[in-house]
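Holo model, cytidine-5'-triphosphate. Inputs:
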Amino acid sequence: MSLFDRPALRTLWCFLSPSLLLPTMAQVPRKKKRKDSALSLGGGGPVGAVKFGEAGIFLVERRMGSSRRRFLTELARKKGFRVEGQMSESVTHVVSENNSGDEVLELLEKQNGICGTEFTAALVDITWFTESMGAGKPLQLEKRHRLQDALNILAENAELSENEGPYLAFTRASSVLKSLPYNVTKMDDLKGIPNLGDHSRKLIEEILEGGTCNEVQDLIQNVRYQTLKKFTSIFGVGVKTADKWFKEGLRTLNELRASTIKFTKQQEAGLLYYEDLILPVTKVEADLIKQIIEEAVHRFLPSAIITLTGGFRRGKEYGHDVDFLITHREEGREEGLISKVISWMTAQGIILYDDITDNSYHKWKYKESETFDRFAKCFSIFKLQKMVHNLEPGRTCSHGSLAANETRGIGLAGHAGSPRHLTATAAKDKDWKAVRVDLVVAPFGQYAYALLGWTGSRLFERDLRRYAKHFEHMILNSHSLFDNKQNTFLLAATEEEIFAHLGLDYIPPQERNA
Ligand code: CTP
Ligand code: MN
Ligand code: MN
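Output:
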């Protein structure tokens, strides 16, 4: 399997659209009064106390979708942001996702009857929004965001075209810009900065000079790019499959659903729960899922250790899924655990989809360099009760009662059977949310390596493994570290010990986001 067989380019929710490639603070014309605005969010969303009144946010629904828009609105309001249901004079930030600036302007004009030029609002990308959520306050608009946007779009396109070299080059360049402690306004600001290839520099120069970049503008209008991006956002669909469907003339999810394609079980689940699975998972939801898993695991193995890994361990506030690592101090006790746990949770109605792989480490020759590890694991979809972001006054999360069996009357009977009913799961007001969960079980002796391997980020892991190979002549993977010079495996009980073996200072998870 290659990097590109990854189920989907699931960074979709924080994907950077090129609306920022317009001149910042683009003039958005004034809105005429109109009652039946097609962009209206409706009044009574949950509103926390507004902390940042100066910034008024309007979320553009097109390409974002109504459920995701609603989710993001609730999230932002909870954090004290002012989110307006309709376009108005008090809106300062028009946030859109995967629309060009021109498209947003056209939409505002068509749907909100905007005309005139009496107020200014910045057309910003969803990145500004998610980063502001992460920071807990509205962020200043920086040129750097625009540059990162462009680089990320090109990186994604390279990934969709299976061009690994350019993918890494653009991803690294974007990561470098992100890490700069200052604002980039001219090419001189990038003097002596490593990891910026010629292509990236050319693009940055073009944007710094003219505000836009033709290559990126062309790309987002490109039908293949748009289609593959959409298709690979389905759980279970990689670039090869997406490309095949594209070549067969398919363009939309509904066309897929109506087609005679024979989907895998995973893809069926991906289509069935699509609307939920593209919503970001919050840290609160991750913690709730952790409690559910702890309860289930401890039923079978009371002193098993369960650790949240992946992006959440790196301190991210949102993820596309939730990753867990499970182990037990007495090696061997963890064997067979995963199927028992999944069976039990399935019986409780918590599991909507599961794909269990048994441990196959014994079959593995350590010299084989493989992308994936050989741990027992389960890629699953959980049915999570939605109390978390209902945010109804007085309705709080009561621990231990969040498993799906608490939900009377919500079974899978309605949609488990027929593959041709791969439409959005249920009504929008259903009280549960499908969430992707990865469970990995490691023997205690490999736990530190598994933890390091499953904490990510992908780019960090890749760079760390390359470093080990080229500078230390060691093979690092999620099971072990093999020293070619001494012809021996290096044991480690903690991540700190692994970094020490590699001759590196310890890098805490929060600093592994690059
Ligand atoms: N990983 C792995 N083998 C897989 C899938 C993932 O080793 N089959 C590792 C990767 O190193 C990755 C980490 O597990 O960095 C977490 O993967 P993933 O959930 O895809 O990414 P996150 O970093 O958690 O980001 P997100 O919030 O999008 O989930
Ligand atoms: Mn993850
Ligand atoms: Mn994962």
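Residues 10, 310-311, 316, 319-321, 323, 372-373, 438, 453-454, 456-458, 461, 478 surround cytidine-5'-triphosphate (ligand 1) (CB under 6 Å). The chain has a mean pLDDT of 82.
Archived with the compound record.
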